[in-house]
Specification:
single chain; alpha/beta; about 35% helix; about 240 residues; three-stranded antiparallel sheet; globular
């Protein structure tokens, strides 16, 4: 078995800019071939020629300014995005927590959404029911668990989303800024659960703006800037 959980090899990711047409409407009418060619060649560069490996069982942090490409990296690992160029290898079952409220139905209750989310990530209904009370207890949502999630705040959605993931047995856990939402006690609770995952050998990729959280959880941290890797180094632990 490879000791590498995730490998990026010269990966570039671009997004087409469909709103851009050289020469505007007049150009499209009188020079359609040129206009369409311009349309196809207009792209936004999210990542350029990045290469890195994440070891199995490692907690790997990713930092950088907004728009640097951090969330794009997680999307590529999760398989919800495909690279424009390069190769990505992922060894293991992924549990992603990439977007608050993703996969939740606004008209269903929190309890019903636990079932829905569980099914979407590959659990059986029996497995979900066996873990239901643990998930609810971890979320600390109380009576709101039986209310439709359309009335939930972003912090409550974060609690529900993380609570579902926290009661799984993932090989690879992807976390995108989820700990930036919610009170300090719940953030600490999430960190402790992630440390528990780490101690069990789960590979963790953690995007955060908090150096404190990175220092607490991660073994290495990668700084992304200008759509490239600026630095990749060991996290210095406080003695």
């Amino acid at each position: 078995m490879s000791d590498i959980a995730i490998s990026f090899m010269d990966v570039t990711k671009t997004y087409p800019l469909y709103h851009h047409i050289t020469g505007g409407l007049k150009g499209l009418i009188f020079h359609p071939v040129k206009a369409v060619k311009s349309l196809k060649s207009s792209h936004f560069l999210a990542l350029k020629d990045i290469s890195f490996d994440v070891k199995r069982g490692e907690a790997f942090g990713i930092m950088g300014k907004n728009g640097a490409g951090k969330s794009t990296i997680l999307g590529l690992i999760a398989g919800v995005l495909k690279p424009t160029k390069g190769k990505i290898i992922v060894n293991g079952r992924i549990s992603p927590l990439l977007e608050l409220g993703a996969g939740f139905h606004p008209e269903l209750t929190g309890r019903e959404n636990i079932v829905l989310k569980g099914v979407l990530i590959g659990l059986t209904r029996r497995q979900i029911q066996d873990r239901m009370e643990e998930i609810i207890d971890f979320s600390e949502l109380g009576e709101f668990i039986d209310q439709p999630v359309r009335i939930y705040s972003s912090g409550m959605l974060a609690r529900l989303g993380f609570s579902i993931i926290a009661n799984l047995n993932p090989d690879i856990l992807l976390i995108d800024e989820i700990l930036a939402v919610g009170d300090k006690d719940f953030q600490n609770k999430c960190i402790q659960r992630m440390l528990s995952f780490k101690n069990k050998g789960v590979t963790i990729v953690f995007v955060s703006h908090s150096m404190e959280s990175i220092n607490m959880l991660c073994d290495r941290v990668m700084w992304v800037e200008g759509h490239k890797i600026k630095s990749l180094e060991l996290v210095k632990k406080n003695s």
